[in-house]
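ok so i was messing around last nite and threw this chain in just to see what happens. nothing serious, just curious
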Amino acid sequence: MNRRVVVTGLGTVNPIGNCVEDTWEGLCAGKSGIAEITKFDATNFRTKIAGELKNFDPLAFVTPKELRRLDDFIVYALACAEMAILDAGITIDDKNSERTGVILGTGIGGLSTVEREEKVLLNSGTKKISPFTIPGVLANLASGNVAIRHGAKGPVSCTVTACSSGNNAIGDAFRTISHGYADVMITGGVEAAVCPLTFAAFNAMRAISTRNDNPEAASRPFDRDRDGFVISEGCGIVILEELTSALNRGATIYAELSGFGSTCDAFHIAAPPPGHPGAVRCMRLALEDAGMEASDIDYINAHGTSTSLNDLYEIEAIKQVFGDHSNKLAVSSTKSMTGHLLGAAGGLETIVSVKSIYEGVIPPTINLDNPDPGCNLDLVPHRKRKKDINAAMSNTFGFGGVNAVLVFRKFHG
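result:
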């Protein structure tokens, strides 16, 4: 059984905006969400910048009691799930609850809760540890809390595949519907890892930017002067729905999700191999799954992290998959504006991909002042572009060599 799957609802909080409308407007305007860290004192850190949420009001989505008990990654997921369900205009009740599921990806889960409760343990002893520590830490508790709040009794799961977590979650949800195990899935990615341990650890790896004097220019995918990615937080959640269900409801259909590919480099814990053959296979598998040719793709929302190897090897992989058509593709990295949301990247970038199809607009790659000589495709520098997009691809590649690619197309009935 291979049923058609469409996107009917969107919800996001991220460094650009606290809803889809503000996010889309900011991305199309080339707005950067990167600024100095405010969530902790970064004075002694090599990196002092991040993509934090701005003016987000958690009490619009959870009670004060819940806020004290829940890690931020769960709060973000609850907020975005509520937005996406409202946007989809769907009601989860006794008629459909057992056919509605949740799969959310996260790279790290409740790391801030781990940090906080370890300090409590060391300073105050075992009796002061919160009984809500474990429910605040476990990666699957974003999915679990969303399912509990909305009564989703179908398949509920969590993907933890580093920066591919969001796309893997959406791909698994796609297959869950396509193969007949559910009719509606709440899916995407979430991350809330702007905390000292994250930055100290990534600084130790020398993976993140230290362009502290100019935060808005720090994330610069494909640019010759890039010096690492920028850590960000946030969430992107979409409602996937079986086509007949969506049509029967008269739902708005943003795009059709047609293909998913997942592979592993089996090469290195953090670095892709030259030419990125795992990404090549992954893009080809996603196209094959969609029943599409490489020439059908108009736009790629690139993984584009602003790291030296990823950017170069991703471009090499795109050229290998798309051949001569690669010169006709528009490729942009919205991480130039949002920073890297880690496990939430795929969720947010799925929203960007389907909005690009729905609106006929490609957000730019900002800060692309001096393109790396090897990054010589049409990278949509500096300014948005109006373009009729019939099909788009979203790439994510994660630590452990995990690759996950999604293919969307304009819905034609």
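not much to say yet. The first helix runs from residue 20 to 28.
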